[in-house]
Write a structure and sequence with these properties.
Distance between the termini of chain B: 30 Å
Strand content of chain B: 15-25%
Structural class of chain A: mainly alpha
Order of helices and strands of chain A: HHHHHHHHHHHHH
CATH superfamily of chain A: MetI-like
Largest interface: A-B, 27 and 32 residues
Largest sheet of chain B: 8 strands, mixed
Strand order of the largest sheet of chain B: 6-7-8-3-9-10-12-11
Oligomer: heterodimer
CATH architecture of chain A: Orthogonal Bundle
CATH topology of chain A: MetI-like fold
Number of helices of chain B: 24
Strand content of chain A: under 5%
Helix content of chain B: 25-40%
CATH class of chain A: Mainly Alpha
Chain lengths: ~290, ~700
């Protein structure tokens, strides 16, 4: 699999030649760093200081304080954990279930394809947020419900993208070759086709990550996300909304972080799509052309 | 029309003087790749005169196509061009768009490789043919349709009036290319640039298209630049030839001189390395190494690393030779052209080990198999018909023997091969491998058979998994069968690499780092890992350059001798087949029409289709051009979903009679025939028939 790493490294080098992507990567990197090492770095999202409630941003409280006098910056940093963990979990669920569905449907075709893809179509018909609410009604409030809901609604896109990829690779000679050597169907699917299909699947994962973050925020905003006192961006927006006149920064600053996060994911996803499509069409000279186009 | 008048006048003036229609001086083209200027064309001089066909021959990467684009100002903006290109006295390089556009409409016509992509699929063919002239104001829109019909009639398209309003998808491949010729000729250009115009076509269709092209050129007196890699085509049509290698012209001269007395080592080596249809030679003399890529050109003479003449001569390594006059009308770019020894092509016939083989038990026996695909229609996907891709083929291959299956595209030869491999279901008939029937076996039951029977694919670019390293690719079949350790693991891989002429130091590389020929070697090494008895080779050299083809063919022959392999060799290239086969089977539209020993098929064929194929195939000997009788088949291969009644070949056959239309022929049994053929009128070719066949040709 060294080849995958080599080409991944090349892809990354190419992507980093775009300013937007560089900014997105730095932003997401910094955010993740803060979220992971929040405890060591001394962020404190719990300590209440009612005397200093709803303070504007200052040297001590960079993002100000909330109605209970808690540091908003700390809460944003810990909220990042909620967002990223939910989104990572959702993407994992969607990919682990969706990719094999697409592989089997595309590889065998026939009735398997028909049955699996109709199931996928049904999933596609579920409105994500309503489905999530229904799940929360069953599972109770919490991160898990949001994660599963977003994960399940993300299955169709993975299944479809994988299936399309399998269909285009299915009749390539190197796949037929494995069959001619006597390789099993499982071997063909997972060892031959899948390693050649990673790029669009990775792009889809990035796109779904931003959708998941947004959906988690929306659920929290409606009061159905993670239970307090665990901070979440959506929950901060909801509370902040009540203090929009006294303390506009309360809602606005977490909102900006949320927007930038989603924007960053989308920028990276779009750049990767452009690059991958360009490479498929133009062969090896694409890097040159892509650069001259800019 | 006034403009037509001036055109005619211009033509009259043109023909009266001997000035070149196109004159290229010191043309250099380079592309910016990875921040570096890469020279693709390196200073070439070229003159093309009216009434002549000038062929540019070269392997991939030699710069021949870029030259043709530069001549007409069609290069992409990323190219840097210098030098001078004068077309009808007008400088092309640096000319503004307006001048170029007028020039393209009136002075130059184009014919590209693939007629399927040259024509706009949503525009009526008639309109496309005259579009250029209408846009340039040479033709009134109201007269366009009649003119289109006239042009189509000139390129022998049957029912031109009806065809004018059809769309490209209603045309067959050969008809499309003839429509493209009509389009290119519509403005009566002085120069026609044809870039591999017949490479995408079958042999019999290629013969049709070339004859139409030459016929039209004679009528108009245009000059043609024909770019090709096929020396047979060159020998058939060229007046003069320029041979390109590594971005330069290395030799130029008349076609007769080039073929009889090549004065550049590359030309000489290239001619030697091509299998000939008119002689079953024993072993091809290859050119060692790979053609250079424009990014990494050798110093001095670009050919010196592969040249036998220049070996060890420092001048070749340091000084780049210029094109200089050698003999009258012949120019060479070689420092030591005078030292070249004239060489005769080897005519030692290949020993065909037939007598002793006859008793050996066949390895593979195919008994009258049929492979039909359902045609489904409607929302209920009901089967409304069957495509009879393979409809009764009988064949056997013995150990150490090469049996070739020849036929044009769509005749079912690849389907046949895949059905034998068990990759497709067989509807009827039996396939026996080593005496055991293998039809309808499950994937699991098939596994032990697959160890012994391996498949080599046509396209080495798509048959290797791009994410595996070369060593992993070769090891994959052994791993799949759980025999990797038993076979000797890494040692076995190194052994296989050496067996196919690859350095074991390349084991860690990925397919994208290999050249086409090396990839095909890798594809062969992979199949040998499990020590198979039979290789099914599906056009294994069709995607490769001429000089690389010879290397692979020699490799296959060596391996066969060493390992006593049986080969089922599938190809449309009659020269390659003659070179490598012991026995040959000819297929047409799913059915086998003739079978026999290799030499008998080539010398004493009895089936009219075989005779036509052989007659249509270009021969790399310009001297034969006018002496040879040619049968040019009418029309194209019919749709296998609705094959003609009776004998499937009858609509195109010059011997067809009533019985052919109604009755399916059986094996011809006359004892005078040296081959087995399935025909009502089997028999050797009578010279009178050729006259008859060509008369019929004139009628369509």
């Amino acid at each position: 699999m060294r080849k995958s790493f080599q080409s991944a490294a090349k892809t990354i080098r190419n992507l980093m030649s775009r300013k937007g992507v560089v900014f997105s990567v730095i932003f997401l990197g910094a955010l993740s760093f803060l979220a992971i090492f929040a405890d060591i770095l001394g962020f404190d999202y719990l300590t209440q200081n009612l005397i200093e409630s709803l303070q504007p941003p200052s040297a001590e409280y960079w993002f100000g304080t909330d109605e209970l006098g808690r540091d908003i910056l700390s809460r944003v940093v810990y909220g990042t954990r909620t967002s990223l963990v939910t989104s990572a979990g959702a993407v994992t669920i969607a990919a682990v279930l969706g990719v094999p569905i697409g592989l089997v449907a595309g590889f065998f075709g026939g009735w398997r394809d028909a049955v699996l893809m109709r199931v996928v179509d049904v999933m596609l018909a579920l409105p994500a947020i309503l489905f999530a609410m229904a799940l929360i009604a069953i599972l109770g409030k919490g991160q898990m419900a949001a994660m599963i809901a977003v994960g399940i609604t993300g299955i169709p896109s993975f299944a479809r993208i994988t299936r399309a990829q399998v269909l285009s690779l299915r009749n390539r000679d190197f796949v037929t070759a494995v069959e001619a050597f006597g390789g099993s169907a499982t071997y063909s699917m997972f060892r031959t086709i899948l390693p050649n299909s990673w790029s669009p699947i990775v792009v889809q994962a990035i796109v779904l990550a931003s959708v998941a973050i947004l959906l988690e925020a929306a659920l929290s905003f409606l009061g159905m996300g993670v239970a307090p006192p665990t901070p979440s961006w959506g929950e901060m927006l909801r509370t902040g909304k009540s203090y929009l006149y006294e303390a506009p920064y309360y809602a606005v600053l977490p909102g900006i972080i949320l927007t930038l996060t989603i924007l960053s994911f989308d920028t990276i996803g779009r750049a990767m799509t452009d690059f991958l499509e360009g490479r498929h069409e133009l062969g090896d000279h694409s890097s040159v052309d892509a650069e001259s186009e800019k | 029309m006034n403009s037509t008048g001036t055109n005619a006048l211009r033509h009259a003036v043109k023909k009266s003087n001997t000035d070149a229609v196109l004159s290229v001086r010191d043309l250099t083209v380079s592309f910016l790749t990875n921040g570096k200027q890469v020279p693709v064309v390196r200073g070439i001089d070229l003159d093309v005169f009216a009434n002549e066909v000038h062929c540019i021959v070269g392997e991939s990467g030699s710069g021949k196509s870029v030259t043709s684009l530069a001549v007409t100002g069609l290069l992409p903006v990323t190219a840097t061009v210098s030098g001078s290109v004068r077309l009808d006295g007008v400088e092309v390089i640096g000319a503004d768009e307006e001048v170029l556009r007028n020039m393209r409409g009136q002075d130059v016509g184009f014919i590209f490789q693939d007629p399927a992509t040259t024509l706009n699929p949503v525009m009526r063919v008639g309109r496309q043919i005259t579009e250029g002239q209408v846009v340039h104001g040479q033709l009134k829109a109201s007269a366009a349709s009649d003119r289109a019909a006239e042009l189509m009639a000139e390129v022998d398209i049957a029912d031109p009036k009806g065809r004018v309003t059809q769309y490209p998808h209603q045309f067959s491949g050969g008809m499309r290319q003839r429509a493209v010729i009509a389009m290119a000729m519509s403005g009566r250009p002085n120069l026609i640039v044809a870039d591999e115009p017949t490479t995408a076509l079958d042999v019999t269709v290629q013969a049709q298209v070339l004859s139409v092209l030459l016929q039209r050129q004679k009528a108009l007196g245009s000059a043609i630049i024909l770019i090709t890699h096929d020396l047979g085509v060159v020998a058939e049509v060229a007046d003069r030839v320029s041979v390109m290698y590594g971005g330069s012209i290395v030799e130029t001269g008349t076609v007769q001189d080039i073929f009889d007395r090549p004065c550049h080592p590359y030309t000489a080596a290239l001619l030697r390395s091509v299998p000939r249809i008119d002689a079953g030679d024993d072993r091809l003399k290859t050119i060692p190494g790979q053609p250079p890529t424009p990014a990494e050109l050798p110093s001095g003479c670009v050919f010196h690393p592969r040249c036998a003449l220049g070996a060890g001569k420092t001048r070749c390594q340091t000084e780049r030779p210029q094109l200089r006059a050698f003999a009258s009308g012949q120019m060479t770019a070689c420092h030591f052209a005078e030292e070249m020894k004239p060489d005769r092509p080897s005519t030692t016939a290949r020993a065909i080990a037939q007598a002793e083989r006859a008793e050996v038990k066949p390895l593979l026996e195919v008994d009258n198999i049929k492979v039909h695909f359902p045609v489904k229609k409607g929302i209920l996907r009901r089967t409304v018909g069957w495509v009879r891709a393979v409809d009764g083929v009988r064949l056997s291959v013995r150990p150490g023997e090469t049996v070739s299956l020849v036929g044009e595209s769509g005749c079912g030869k690849t389907t046949f091969a895949r059905a034998i491999m068990g990759l497709l279901d067989v509807n009827e008939g039996d396939v026996r491998f080593d005496g055991r029937s293998i039809v309808g076996l499950s994937r699991k039951a098939m596994r032990p058979v697959r160890r012994q029977m391996q498949y080599v694919f046509q396209d080495p670019y798509s048959s290797l998994n791009p994410v595996l390293s070369a060593a992993d690719i070769v090891a994959e079949p052994m791993r799949l069968h759980g025999l990797f350790e038993e076979m000797g693991s890494d040692k076995r891989i190194a052994e296989l690499f050496e067996m196919v002429g690859l350095s074991p130091s390349m084991m860690g590389k990925y397919p994208s780092e290999f050249s086409g020929g090396q990839k095909q070697r890798l594809g062969i090494a992979r199949t040998l890992g499990l020590k198979p008895k039979l290789l099914i080779l599906d056009e294994p050299v069709a995607a490769l350059d001429v000089s690389i083809q010879a290397q692979i063919l020699n490799l296959l022959q060596d391996l066969q001798r060493e390992l006593d392999l049986g080969f089922l060799f599938i190809s449309h290239n009659l020269s390659v087949v003659r070179h490598i086969s012991d026995r040959v089977a000819v297929m047409y539209l799913g059915k086998m029409v003739e079978e026999g020993a290799c030499n008998e098929i080539y010398e004493n064929a009895a089936h009219p289709y075989t005779l036509s194929l052989l007659s249509a195939a270009p021969i790399s000997n310009p001297g034969m051009r006018n002496q040879r009788a040619r049968i040019i088949l009418r029309g194209d291969i019919p749709n296998p979903a609705s094959p003609p009644s009776g004998c499937r070949f009858h609509p195109r056959c010059f011997r067809a009679t009533d019985i052919c239309r109604s009755q399916v022929p059986e094996l011809a049994t006359q004892s005078s025939l040296k081959t087995t053929s399935i025909c009502h009128h089997a028999g050797p070719l009578d010279p009178k028939e050729i006259a008859l066949a060509s008369q019929a040709e004139g009628g369509i």
